[in-house]
Amino acid sequence: MTRRILVVSHFSRPAAVHAAESVTAALTEQGIEVIHDVATEDDVELVMVLGGDGTILGAAEFAHDRGVPLLGVNLGHVGFLAEAEPEALPDVVRRAVDRDYHVEERMTLEVSVVAPDGSVNQGWALNEAAMEKGEQGRMVEITIGVDGSALSSFGCDGLILATPTGSTAYAFSGGGPIVWPDVEAMLMVPLAAHALFARPMVVGPASTLEVELLAAPAADAVLWCDGRRRFEVPAGSRLIVRRGSQPVRLARLNRTPFSGRLVAKFDLPVTGWRGRRA
């Protein structure tokens, strides 16, 4: 049976184009068929992504639906979802050929937007579902609840509902905590809230998070799932977020502790740790 690997890259960046050409040639030489078009191929064993977190999140749409492992090589900035840097590309190819990687499952969110007319739009997210005000200069007025019970009401610029994977992304910028990826939890992080009780919260994976966008004063909002999939949220809508039933599978080449990844990606100072010198 022919082995197939999907290679996804940011084709507007010369470095990504060059990397894709190099990877394609190396895999083909090893007898592996390389696919570049996600719309024409389902039967692949691995999705290799050459780009930043945005490119990886785009490829995750394909990988999530099919349960295929995703292996990222960082050609962007921080590249928190990536497993390797560009200089390691030859080793990445070798290990993909040898299937020398382990697979880590990351929880996702299932998102439902229930409009005032009863219609429902559904989506999912690996990092976060971010509800933001639809008009500049106007806050959204919301009520939040957990497990069917109301918790608080306030005005804000928006609200981020995130996974542990997303805790180092938009939720982190919004003041949320970093949550280790092996912790199964969901985060709720208000953005510029006008309230005393509007701090970030962390709830268990069996909980249900709800957000009601109040109809008065009328102010519509928009919902972005991983910054890619957009949903309209009319005033009076209800947002329901649960743990997703289908995780995203990440191919990992090493077992570096998450703390080590934080230090490397954020360039954190660790001088003095067990006598370490700068």
TrEMBL record:
Required cofactor(s): a divalent metal cation
E.C. number(s) listed in UniProt: 2.7.1.23
Subcellular location: Cytoplasm
InterPro entries associated with the record: ATP-NAD_kinase_N (IPR017438), ATP-NAD_kinase_PpnK-typ_C (IPR017437), NAD/diacylglycerol_kinase_sf (IPR016064), NADK (IPR002504)
Keyword Nucleotide-binding found: yes
Gene Ontology molecular functions: ATP binding; metal ion binding; NAD binding; NAD+ kinase activity
Principal localisation: cytoplasm
Catalytic reactions of this protein: NAD(+) + ATP = ADP + NADP(+) + H(+)
Protein keywords: ATP-binding, Cytoplasm, Kinase, NAD, NADP, Nucleotide-binding, Transferase
A single cellular component GO annotation: cytoplasm
Residues annotated for NAD(+) binding in this entry: 53-54, 127-128, 138, 157, 168-173, 192
Active-site residue numbers: 53 (proton acceptor)
GO biological process, one term: NAD+ metabolic process
Domain of life the protein comes from: Bacteria
Enzyme class: transferase
Spans through the membrane: none
Family: Belongs to the NAD kinase family.
Biological role: Involved in the regulation of the intracellular balance of NAD and NADP, and is a key enzyme in the biosynthesis of NADP. Catalyzes specifically the phosphorylation on 2'-hydroxyl of the adenosine moiety of NAD to yield NADP.
Listed name of the protein: NAD kinase
